[in-house]
Amino acid sequence: MIINFVSDPEAYLWQGYVFAVLLFLTALVQSLCLQQYFQLCFEVGMNLRTSLVAAIYKKALTVSNVTRKESTVGETVNLMSVDAQRFMDFTVYMHQLWSSPLQIIISLVFLWTELGPSVLAGIGVLVLLIPLNAVLVTKSRRIQVIAKCILKFFAWELSFQKQVEKIRAWELKGLLHFFHLQSFGIFIFSCAPILVSVATFAVYVMVDEDNILDAQKAFTSIFLSRNILMFPFLPLPACAVKFHEASFAWNQDSDVTIKDITLEIAHGSLVAIVGSVGSGKSSLISAMLGEMENIKGHINIQGSMAYVPQQAWIQNATLKDNIIFGSSLDETRYQQVLEACALHPDLKLLPGGDLTEIGEKGINLSGGQKQRVSLARAVYSNADIYLLDDPLSAVDAHVGRHIFDKVLGPEGLLQNKTRILVTHNLSFLAQVDDIVVLEAGTVTERGSYSTLLANSGSFAQLLNTYGNQQDNIHEEEAMGKVITIAKDTASGNTHFNMLVFLLGLFLLIATGLASFGTIRASRVMHEQLLSNILRVPMSFFDSTPTGRIVNRFAKVKTLQFYVATSRQLRRLDSVTRSPIYSHFGETVSGLSVIRAFGHQERFLQHNEKIVDVNQKSVYSWLVSNRWLAVRLELVGNLTVFFAALLAVFVKNSLNSGIVGLSISSAMNITQTLNWLVRMTSELETNIVAIERLNEYTEIKNEAPWVTTQRPPSQWPNNGEITFIDYKVRYRPELELVLDGINCDIKGTEKIGVVGRTGAGKSSLTNCLFRILEAAGGKILIDGLDIATLGLHDLREKLTIIPQDPILFSGTLRMNLDPFDQYSDEDIWHTLELAHLKSYVQALPEGLSSPVSEGGENLSVGQRQLVCLARALLRKSKILILDEATAAVDMETDHLIQETIRSEFANCTVITIAHRLHTIMDSHRVLVLQEGKIVEFDNPEELLQQQGIFAGMAREAGITRSQDTAL
């Protein structure tokens, strides 16, 4: 209207003012409505996130021990921190599901009104650009966080640091690749409005000489294409599955099985994967499932997946439960699935129909029945992508045809789903959309059935080799148009075009450099944080909740909030999140106790309380964002208003083109100003994350791991230990826990250490490893002051079997030998001595058998025997048993004691015990009370002295040392 007003010399001046005011009011109302929409969506998202966190916690309180072992605490914390946040982010865009089509239709109507059929050219360019926008859609990644590193006793920090850094390096490599693609995607999307406008205008003026492109049509169309039509297309993904130069292996050290695959599978298509035996068909499916290591390139999968394995997996449950598989029952769909998978005749033969218990691994079903049940389970799940590993191989031709027609084919239940079918049955291939031919793990051919036959390549040879079955081939009919784009000659200002090109090029380069810099900064910060955390003294872990550490590591990777306007609010959010993770970790570790006392409700209420505290800070952060957004929008709207007023004031000296350009640019100022201020604020407030990480990188470290004064390679030779007036406290402000310890322990001597709770027994152990540093005095081992040694030089020469057996997530071999210093023969011999050989041999993967977090998939006794095996491997001259058998049964206790007596006969053994019978055959017993030595003699003498030790022995029912000999 303003452009028309300027173009009309007879228009009244007051009309211009009205148009300017209307433009301002329209923009203002739009801004207020948009910000109100964002506010309501964020509130819904915040409540959704809070509900999910509470639900995850509630589930953790009720989950079975078996289920709890299937995932680590870190993975569940990841659900609470990252995935719940994604739900919150999703709520802002969920209404695009219905508004985007409406917005596109309205925009097209307006554009058609202005430009007529020429708008189809611009839409064509836009559609061609949609696949490139798919790189902006990120696939879900899960982070692995370190919950706790108790590695100091064994000097294993370096090994675990390398493992974490290796995982981090792979993650950053993938992120860098993704950011490069993202940079290109942003560049293409930035150019899209220009390309769409150029194509539309070019066709408009070329198809008819009477079409005049005036300022009104041009700027109205540009506004519609840029600000309305482009927005709904942004999040659209291009394909369901995309491989880009991807190579996969079963593990990092094995040969590559899938090599340099570049493949795109469209949504809703039926793709067959064929090839000879061993060509990599099932491996390709495994790669899509994430079961293989991604050695090179990347794979992107959009949507949920269902999988039908080549060998059907059946639960020990009813047939109905196997099909429903935990989903809610939809009787109509359930009956459709039974009919499509040809299971109705089988149900009539089963005694209980679909309620028949089909036994472990489907023992009372035939192979074909099991395969159809497995297929029915996948079909019922209503997933987006179906991975079908030769599901028709176990059924006859008639049933196979029925399943293909009713399930997989163009009229089947899955007709609108993405279906990836591995098959040896060539009779169905003429009815699929696309065929991928594999040979030796690479794609040799791809295309439709007729195209591949015409090529006379490996697919045609495959048909000739296995018989060309074309009895049921349906004739393919395809209709299409060849679009020829004529070469256009652009005319205009060459310098301006070059400027636009250079600006676009610089934008691409700047985005790429920013991506590289971000990844490098993240890597450096993570390495510094991890390195320092592994070097801090144990007193830091005593006073710092694990959840707080987890939060710091997690926040390195998950600071992806939309905007932030207050550093203090961001800090408050971070501070109030940490107690949630700490409380969750504490709950999981004490789950049995909580259940035993029936205090689940109390813990649940406490969790809701701390979640509500965090929710308050998040809400304040959201409100501050809206406060800033409204004011930024107002500044932008005022800019548009004054631009319109200026056009009215100088109406006679400006042409309509200049007016359209100025108002169009002013409208873009709102978005640009919004982005500039928000990103500046984001940069400032995200420094909170750096600040919080920096706190941990500046924590005072423990003593150096290695110093210039190295002990002799054979040290210690004898294992003699001398305490000289030794004193220690946990922190400077606390009282002494050991006060004036003086004693000599001879080489190969077996010493028992006893005392009441809090007497200082475990502190004595911590001092030997320098977990606690001396407040006075010193400890000599074979005459060498341990305070002068590097921590690793000291700790590598000592071995401890702790009271709580500590195992790490990984393999059994990794838990025994993380540095790969010992041969398999040594490890098997050690396992035999630890009475574990027969158990490990019975495991399917032997030494490579997985150990879950904390060794949850092993019994306490087995974990303790693994720790014993670990000690046997190290062959240290000094062994410390810190109440190693306090939590095991008598049989395991007997096995451990027996092995220690035989295998550590020539070592110095210090046993800290509550069970006195375990130390009654010691050479001497050291009795501690309030951090001081009150008795130190052989057990028989102490029993006769009628002192503290004798009193403890009477309480244990021991009257003489011979009573406990084993």
TrEMBL record:
GO terms for cellular component: apical plasma membrane; endomembrane system. Keywords: ATP-binding, Membrane, Nucleotide-binding, Repeat, Transmembrane, Transmembrane helix, Transport. It is found in: Endomembrane system. PROSITE patterns: ABC_TM1F, ABC_TRANSPORTER_1, ABC_TRANSPORTER_2. It is a multi-pass membrane protein. Residues 1-144, 499-685 form the ABC transmembrane type-1 domain. Pfam families: ABC_membrane, ABC_tran. Residues 241-465, 721-955 form the ABC transporter domain. CDD domains: ABC_6TM_MRP1_2_3_6_D1_like, ABC_6TM_MRP1_2_3_6_D2_like, ABCC_MRP_domain1, ABCC_MRP_domain2. The chain crosses the membrane at residues 12-29, 118-138, 184-207, 498-519. GO terms for molecular function: ABC-type transporter activity; ATP binding; ATP hydrolysis activity. Belongs to the ABC transporter superfamily. ABCC family. Conjugate transporter (TC 3.A.1.208) subfamily. This is Uncharacterized protein. It comes from Laticauda laticaudata (Blue-ringed sea krait).
